[in-house]
Amino acid sequence: MDIFYKPLFRKFVKKQTRSLQLVIEDEVEKIIIKPNIGKSKKGDLAGFRVHKFSHKRQRFLIGYRDQEAQIIFFKTGLHENFYREIKKYLREVESK
Question: Out of 3, 24, 45, 87, which residue is the most buried by the measure of CB atoms under 10 Å away?
Answer without folding.
Answer: 24
